[in-house]
């Protein structure tokens, strides 16, 4: 099999690091082989990026021309939607329908930031002197290190590349080791859309080698990261030493709350999707479920029945809901959490095993699993499992519920299911999380900011203001009636 090239400073070339593979998690076959980037590739990409964003032809390019590139990328993604969906599914095992949704969202993200960059400008602060005016302007930061995880690569890559390019920066993308393919494909599309060489590089490889060298490079002036909380914390330390800014989208252990007046059908469907879509491999997975005791029995019966209907299988088949987990090692980690839950006194209501279907034995499949009988103190309620495992806790006192829902190092998202919107708003207000979904879950909008409280992150992605996260503000004072300042006379 021919090895894939990587994209370094506008050139397609063999990486100079170790050999690595992209494997299809559905049966572990090798989809592509490539050599990862090494430290020389990092150096070349950063130097090319620094030159490219400073080039007068790029710096003087009006924002509406930068927008044109993003619009072309968006159109190219839409033209090649089937190919990209297939690639995303092969690379990370996400079921076809979900992968397709992500590809469409990447096209929408590129289009959105094209629009934002067309209309985004500086400010004219109020004048405080008649002979002076001031301008508040925004300029690119420079070279951005974008580091992304394996769970939704096309969406997370585009959420970083699009605003960074719209703002006039250069981006070096370090995709997760397990999923390099879609990031390299995106580079191809940006090149085809006319992005000048050097403004985007894609450096697959190990986080601890390629990612680390990239973020420590003195010419890298911002880190935009999505991934685990521990890695995010390490990157924040490096950024603090360099005095550069970060945007960190980290882990979660999101509570979903079903109040006693909830529409059971609506809530059961929403909770099922909220935890089991993407096999729970989502930072926003609704993995801690609090159910009012008054409706616990009928609600759990309906949720269990719906979960039993989920089709586990090859994610390339359109009707499949539950595909494989990303790697055998990750499935092992999920299994360890389930064993720990049992050891701590939990009982398995559903799942808890590797599916027995002989056709699934080569892949990293795991049954959607529901665990009961634990309190919020259990390790599976406190730690992020990142798998198809839901822990359910009954409640009857709302004040205690709020304390328990907030008793987490994380604060990414929460769900509330109730017909009483006044109560829902009060509850939403009391939860220490960055996103609250009321009578819905795990829906997104590129025009609405997203990010975490507490150890779930720093900064916000999406929304008009997110463009400014990739810019630095500069003030310009203009004398309107210049006179010598006779101070020294
Ligand atoms: P996950 O558990 O989702 O894989 P990680 O935080 O380990 O989360 O990985 C997310 C991204 O961060 C990946 O691209 C990974 O290679 C990268 N990464 C991991 N460790 C480091 C590091 N020390 N420095 C820079 N990037 C890293």
TrEMBL record:
Q: Domain of life, per the record?
A: Bacteria
Keyword field: Oxidoreductase
Q: Which organism is it from?
A: Providencia manganoxydans
Show the InterPro entries listed in the entry: Ald_DH/histidinol_DH, Ald_DH_C, Ald_DH_CS_CYS, Ald_DH_CS_GLU, Ald_DH_N, Aldehyde_DH_dom
Q: Which residues form the Aldehyde dehydrogenase domain?
A: 12-476
Q: PROSITE patterns attached here?
A: ALDEHYDE_DEHYDR_CYS, ALDEHYDE_DEHYDR_GLU
Identify the Gene3D superfamilies for this entry: Aldehyde Dehydrogenase, Chain A, domain 1, Aldehyde Dehydrogenase, Chain A, domain 2
Q: Where is the signal peptide?
A: none
- Please state what the protein is called: Aldehyde dehydrogenase
Q: Kindly give the Pfam families that the UniProt entry links to this protein.
A: Aldedh
State the taxonomy lineage: Bacteria, Pseudomonadati, Pseudomonadota, Gammaproteobacteria, Enterobacterales
Q: Which PANTHER family match?
A: ALDEHYDE DEHYDROGENASE-RELATED (PTHR11699)
> What family does the Swiss-Prot or TrEMBL record give for this protein?
Belongs to the aldehyde dehydrogenase family.
The catalytic residues are 249
Instruction: Write down the SUPFAM superfamilies for this protein, in alphabetical order.
Output: ALDH-like
Specify whether Oxidoreductase is a keyword of the entry.
yes
């Amino acid at each position: 099999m021919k090895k894939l090239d990587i994209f370094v400073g506008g050139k397609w070339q063999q990486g100079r690091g170790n050999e690595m593979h992209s494997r299809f998690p559905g049966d572990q076959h090798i989809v592509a082989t490539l050599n990862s980037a090494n430290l020389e590739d990092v150096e070349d990409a950063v130097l090319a990026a620094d030159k490219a964003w400073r080039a007068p032809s790029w710096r003087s390019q009006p924002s509406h021309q930068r927008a044109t590139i993003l619009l072309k990328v968006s159109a190219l993604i839409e033209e090649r939607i089937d190919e990209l969906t297939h690639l995303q599914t092969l690379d990370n095992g996400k079921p076809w329908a979900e992968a397709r949704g992500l590809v469409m969202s990447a096209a929408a993200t590129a289009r959105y930031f094209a629009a934002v960059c067309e209309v985004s400008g500086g400010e004219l602060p109020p004048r405080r002197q008649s002979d002076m005016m001031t301008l508040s302007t925004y300029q690119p930061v420079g070279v951005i290190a974008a580091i992304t995880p394996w769970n939704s690569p096309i969406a997370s890559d585009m959420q970083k590349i699009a605003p960074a390019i719209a703002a006039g920066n250069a981006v070096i993308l370090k995709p997760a080791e397990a999923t390099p393919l879609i990031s390299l494909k995106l580079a191809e599309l940006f090149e085809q859309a006319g992005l000048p060489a050097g403004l985007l590089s894609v450096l697959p490889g190990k986080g601890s080698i390629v990612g680390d060298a990239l973020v420590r490079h003195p010419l890298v002036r911002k880190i935009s990261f999505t991934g685990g909380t521990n890695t995010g914390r390490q990157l924040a330390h490096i950024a603090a030493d360099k005095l550069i800014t970060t945007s960190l989208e980290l882990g979660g252990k999101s509570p979903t709350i079903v109040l006693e007046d909830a529409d059971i059908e609506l809530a059961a469907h929403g909770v099922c999707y909220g935890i089991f879509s993407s096999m729970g491999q989502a930072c926003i997975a609704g993995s801690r479920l609090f159910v009012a005791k008054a409706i616990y029995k009928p609600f759990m019966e309906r949720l269990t029945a719906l979960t039993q209907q989920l089709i586990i299988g090859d994610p390339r088949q359109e009707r499949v809901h539950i595909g494989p987990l990303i790697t055998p090692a990750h499935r092992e980690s999920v299994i360890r959490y389930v064993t720990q839950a049992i050891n701590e006194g939990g009982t398995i209501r559903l799942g808890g095993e590797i599916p027995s279907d002989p056709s699934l034995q080569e892949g990293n499949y795991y049954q959607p699993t529901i665990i009961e009988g634990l309190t919020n103190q259990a390790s599976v309620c406190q730690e992020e499992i990142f798998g198809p495992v839901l822990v359910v806790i009954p409640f009857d006192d709302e004040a205690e519920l709020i304390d328990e829902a907030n008793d987490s190092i994380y604060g990414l998202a929460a769900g509330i299911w109730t017909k009483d919107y006044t109560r829902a708003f009060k509850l939403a207000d009391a939860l220490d999380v960055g996103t609250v979904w009321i009578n819905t879950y795990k829906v997104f909008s590129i025009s609405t900011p997203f990010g975490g409280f507490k150890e779930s992150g720093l900064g916000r992605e999406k929304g008009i203001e997110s463009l400014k996260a990739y810019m630095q503000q500069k003030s310009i004072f203009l004398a309107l009636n210049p006179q010598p300042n006779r101070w020294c006379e």
